[in-house]
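Hi, here's the filled form for the chain we discussed.

Project: internal
Contact: R.S.
Residues: 193
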Amino acid sequence: MRVVFTMLLVSLVACGRQTAPPPAYGRLPAFDLVAESGRAFGSADLAHKVWIANFIFTRCPTICPAFSAKMALVQKKIRSFGGAVQLVSFSVDPEYDTPPRLQAYAARYGADQALWTFLTGPLDEIKAVVKDGLKVAMGKQEGGGDDVAAIFHGTYFVVLDADMQIRGYVDSNDATAVQQVVALAGRVVAGGG
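And the returned structure, exactly as it came back:
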């Protein structure tokens, strides 16, 4: 009987650890950008939602297609959260990535506009959100001109809670990245984040 009780207690403690919200790593300041639909979209639109961010640009020939394909898989898996989780892709090439270009890109990956938003806006405002707020690298190598190979950005998913607190980073290059980011978002949802 004592062994059964001990195993039950260990299971409950382990379950508690899995659903406890992860620590906060800082708060993202309010922002206002433009969605692929052409309408204004900002932090107010994400109020009371857990959300997952990633970083792309539509003319990227290398990392972005794989990163966006993984975000599409995340989209399928978060449906089970009943709308409690939103996906947001920030363009790191906003001068080129107009709303119509982002809309075409979103269609290519089967983005459901109710769950997944693509954002653009003035470059300095994008940098304020991505670099300063989310602490993810982005920019253009000096002397790169208009060469798309000069554009760079981080490849981490970022999970935020409903209070704009950063709750974690998941390396999209990891083979289990999709499962990790969905599990992390689930912990934040379950923890009341």
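Let me know if anything looks off before we file it.
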